[in-house]
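Blackboard transcription, Thursday session:
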Amino acid sequence: MRARNLAVVLATIHRSGPHTRAALAERTGLTKTTVSSLVSDLLEAGVVTESGAVRGGERGRPGVAVSLSGHRVAALGLEINIDYLAACVVDLTRAVRLRRTRPADNRNSDPARILSGVRNLVKEITAEAEADGLRVIGAALAVPGTVEGGVVRSAPHLGWRDVRVADLVDLPFTIDNEANLAALGELWFGSRETDFLYVSGEIGIGAGVVVEGTVFRGTFGLAGELGHVVVVPDGPTCRCGGRGCLEVYAGQDALLGELASVGELVGRLESGDPRALEACERAGHALGVALTSAVHLLDPGRIVLGGIFAPLYRWLEGPVSEGLGARLGQMRGTPPALVVSATGADAAVLGAAGSIIQQIIAEPAQLLGL
Amino acid sequence: MRARNLAVVLATIHRSGPHTRAALAERTGLTKTTVSSLVSDLLEAGVVTESGAVRGGERGRPGVAVSLSGHRVAALGLEINIDYLAACVVDLTRAVRLRRTRPADNRNSDPARILSGVRNLVKEITAEAEADGLRVIGAALAVPGTVEGGVVRSAPHLGWRDVRVADLVDLPFTIDNEANLAALGELWFGSRETDFLYVSGEIGIGAGVVVEGTVFRGTFGLAGELGHVVVVPDGPTCRCGGRGCLEVYAGQDALLGELASVGELVGRLESGDPRALEACERAGHALGVALTSAVHLLDPGRIVLGGIFAPLYRWLEGPVSEGLGARLGQMRGTPPALVVSATGADAAVLGAAGSIIQQIIAEPAQLLGL
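(Written on the board underneath:)
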């Protein structure tokens, strides 16, 4: 009961901003004595802070306002991607306090070697966070693959199958799919729209569909595998065993060809290189087909292009919009708006940290040991 | 508060079967006096009934058990489809009490004429239900199109656009998409599995994805439009304005060709007619492609083929399973099981009635005027 009341008080402050104790009591239906006792626990844990006198909403009397504190409690976001490792620390107000990215070649890699790299990154960033007075109380890891409990079931580009990720941090810890966490990153740190399909362009292509602020995960947590939606049923063989999947036409490898990086591709596109323009055109057409199927099945509020599709948005927007307009027009009047991600390459690692903040707000007693 | 307590008591009986009043008090945390008073209201409304003495679970004392009553309260399911109208009456225990189907030619039809046909069917079946002592207290209508509030936004095969359905019944009334209600029909009256993608083969092809017993509807309630998933991007033009949609290859018109009915097609298939076999083969391949995309995006527990795909299952199963196996194998180990619907052609109209029963159980005070 006390745990539930702590959660109710914290959720009220989180949702509706600073409150006096009296206003909290009025809003939550708890007694003032109970609220005072809960608030002092939250103060002591560094979860909330007292700020200057505000006018209490309820009866116009001024009082000391209690608000979320960004000074103490923090969460760690981690990401293993094909060509980099990333980490970030986010405080309880969802302010991003630290970010670190390390280029790496993780393709078909030894899990032990990569995990040791992550461990080093964790040590470094946690020490920095502590130096800033932050207490990191949970961590989440984004991986480009399917996840079940603490096990990465299949991350084909990493070459991982059934890899258990243990002893990475000495903290409450979760793992999730990169695209799901990137969608949550967009929700919490990007546009803050609550209904959209986030398309994560990486070496693989994933997606996370968010409806009313919640990711739809399907039955086994495997929903949103946009990269393997069939674009051309008898197209080229895909790494997944299928044929003509979206990834074959619009994955990073298809887009880059011989080029070394997305930056180089953008340079070529800016200088009007016909091969680069053609690769983007082809990718955009394939995305238009796959997103048509996705819109019919998932009915998203809008479509957000993220990951490497963000820097390529200028060149993708035309063919993608055209495809959606031509195919969806009569069924839906206007197709969902197509926009570029507001979070860029950090979406997944931010979403990872944000997912821990959300857990703390939802169950403060458990994660803070109150 | 009383309304909430009525719902708690009714949900307990609905979920866990007959209970003594004492057992209900123990289970719900309400006082025995409160439970007795709620139960007498429910008895009077005909929602529950008293049956013989049972051993009360809590202390071994025998008592009178209170269980859901199938004798009084009932719901009306209605369906407008392209070539028939249907109605059914389902009692509170979800026993199907009456079913009526009227063949009709509703293609590109006048809404007023069809709705008048539905009104006649309602009068007839309601009178029969009353003669059986049933009190119909709500109705739901399934339509083959998209629905928003009380308006059928677009039902392309009916030729309807923005048709407001009013004055159909003098009862609390909802409208929903045929495939969503058919999925719920399968959930409540069919296999009772809680996780599946129900594929509704009709003149159009819809789908309803059920995860943990709930239909996923997307942002605007338009999710599950499987019929317009792209199978061949430059394939034949579809009625929706797109090209190469599933419906072009596997909708009823594509399957039947010159034949008059699904029964006739089944006859031809049984006698080994090569054109009929080829049509099924082609539809099965297209379904395999579209369902591959659907599995990647929606991650269903299993796939249930319903509507006209149920009588054709023998001929579709091979090509569909083959397609799913070849395309999904490496990503998922085994693809979701493919099964035939347990509810047949009645799925949508049963789901419609069932949705009202679910509302009564969830909010008895409101729908019963308690």
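Lecturer's comment: Chain A has a mean pLDDT of 92.
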